[in-house]
Design a protein that fits this description.
Blueprint: H1 4-22, H2 26-38, H3 42-55, H4 60-72, H5 76-89, H6 94-106, H7 110-123, H8 128-138, H9 145-158, H10 165-175, H11 179-192, H12 197-209, H13 213-225, H14 231-243, H15 247-257, H16 266-277, H17 281-294, H18 307-321, H19 325-333, H20 346-356, H21 360-373, H22 378-390, H23 394-407, H24 412-424, H25 428-438, H26 443-455, H27 459-472, H28 477-491
């Protein structure tokens, strides 16, 4: 028996060694996974971590790293799930809490994001980066903006070299309309990062709010020279020239602003002022009329595509393709601010998704269920009416749209739908009334309005609407081709003929 003991001991040692060898080396896996992430191979990194988690399902480090992969893939729900798993064994891990807060924020769950970062700040009160992020989240809403500024200032005290901390403070002060303090902060940021065009732009904006137009002009030009060249910057420069009474210099930046997307409508008004002072009265009148025609219009082109759908879509599309509707509804019900009895209930979002897939019958079925859950919501009734209209169900669509207008006489989508129906019925004046009341900025809808104006002989209104279409649809080549065809048709035919 004694002779057998060494053999037994050896066998046990070998078995233990074999088990140890079979278990994954977490540090090695994390190192490989991080290398894959850095190389942009997110799918491979995800597979690596998932494979390792089959052997070590409760490993907090692997869960955290998998959460980081999902965060990069913008799969917020899965990122949140894995950060929470990671925290279940180490609830005070600052890094996991930090990124969990970011995932909540990106998933539009602002309350949980702030709660998570507040907890992180309590655990690590001297972590400047955590304070900065917490301040960014707090400043996103008006009611917590002042506290956000306090957190950002505390972060700066802890580490004045935090990336863009002076910009973050300045932007918060700007949003709180403390323009003198914002000016100081943006200047501090530019001293540290001289090529920061965005900081220069907001320094110019703050100077403009204070009426310092020469300084505003200087920093708008600085922003444009440092790759912050959007419509707002060109508009600001043009406006500064107008206020400085250099009207000729104002023309080029204002006209340039109108070629960029999104273009500031106010540029037409400032161009009108400049042309007027230069004695170019016809051009001034045209710009002023165009500004009046465009001002106050709203973007209704995205009314048939909710923001929630954009984030959820890539995860839900495969499920809908497999007809797993119930799983989709369960996922949608977990989205922030979704309530089964609210206007944006899960069935509403499901209807949007079906419509995106071209499954109109399924979309109508889901929207009818949604309408039953929220019978007093005008937007939902209007949305249903638009889907019915797209399916050619004119009478049913009109009932839904009229119901929407009974609930809210100014609902833009319902007004557009009724305008579209009257256009199909060749009731041009009624179509014009509905479409104008909608104040839509959607160039495709405005094309119908332009045609209707031509058909009732209102050529000047039609041509003005055509200019509005060109402004709002400047990046839509096929739309502009349709507009050109429409204009050519009416140049060679009687606009009252109805042809």
């Amino acid at each position: 028996m004694l002779r057998e003991m060494p053999q037994l001991a050896s066998l046990l040692l070998l078995s233990a060694f074999a088990v140890g060898q079979a278990r994954p080396d977490v540090a090695s896996i994390v190192s490989r996974g991080q290398s894959l992430v850095e190389a942009g191979q997110l799918g491979e990194a995800e597979q690596l971590y998932q494979s390792a988690l089959r052997d070590l399902p409760d490993n907090s480090e692997l869960r955290f790293e998998l959460g980081m992969v999902y965060l990069r893939e913008r799969n917020w729900a899965r990122a949140i799930e894995n950060y929470q798993y990671s925290l279940s064994t180490n609830p005070n891990r600052v890094k996991a809490l930090f990124y969990l807060g970011e995932a909540y924020f990106m998933n539009s769950d602002f309350d949980r994001a702030r709660e998570t970062l507040a907890k992180t700040v309590n655990i690590a009160p001297d972590d400047a980066q955590v304070r900065q992020k917490y301040g960014e989240y707090l400043r996103s809403k008006l009611e917590t903006r002042s506290e956000g500024l306090r957190q950002l200032q505390k972060a700066r005290q802890l580490n004045p070299n935090l990336p863009r901390i002076d910009f973050d403070i300045g932007k918060t002060q700007f949003d709180l309309t403390d323009f003198p303090s914002a000016t100081d902060s943006f200047e501090a940021e530019l001293k540290k990062t001289a090529r920061d065009g965005e900081a220069a732009f907001f320094l110019a904006e703050a100077s403009a709010r204070l009426g310092n137009w020469e300084k505003a002009r200087q920093y708008y030009e600085y922003a444009l020279a440092h790759e912050y060249a959007d419509g707002a910057a060109y508009y600001g420069l043009g406006r500064a020239f107008v206020e400085l009474e250099d009207f000729r210099a104002a023309l080029a930046p204002l006209q340039r602003a109108l070629t960029l997307r999104p273009s500031p409508i106010q540029a037409h008004f400032q161009l009108g002022r400049a042309f007027q002072r230069l004695g170019r009265f016809e051009e001034a009148r045209r710009e002023t009329k165009l500004f009046a025609a465009m001002n106050g219009r709203i973007d209704t082109s995205s009314e048939l595509r909710g923001a929630e759908v954009e984030d959820a879509w890539k995860h839900m599309k495969p499920l809908l393709a497999d007809n797993k509707e119930q799983e989709v509804l369960e996922y949608l019900a977990k989205l922030p601010d979704i309530d089964p009895t609210s206007p944006r209930n899960p069935y509403y979002l499901l209807g949007e998704m079906y419509l995106s897939l071209g499954r109109n019958d399924d979309a109508k079925r889901a929207l009818l269920t949604a309408r039953g859950l929220s019978p007093n919501d005008a937007h939902l009734a209007a949305y249903l009416g638009m889907v019915q209209l797209a399916s050619g169900e004119i009478d049913v669509a009109e009932q839904s749209l009229r119901s929407a207008l009974t609930l809210d006489a100014a609902d833009p989508l319902a007004l557009i739908g009724m305008g579209g129906i009257r256009y199909r019925q060749e009731r041009w004046l009624d179509s014009i009334t509905y479409l104008e009341r909608s104040r839509t900025a959607d160039p495709n809808t405005l094309l119908l309005l332009c045609d209707a104006y031509f058909r009732v002989g209102k050529k000047e209104d039609a041509l003005l609407t055509a200019e509005v279409i060109r402004a709002f649809g400047a990046d839509q080549r096929s739309l502009l081709d349709s507009l050109d065809q429409l204009l050519r048709r009416y140049q060679s035919s009687d606009p009252r003929s109805g042809h």
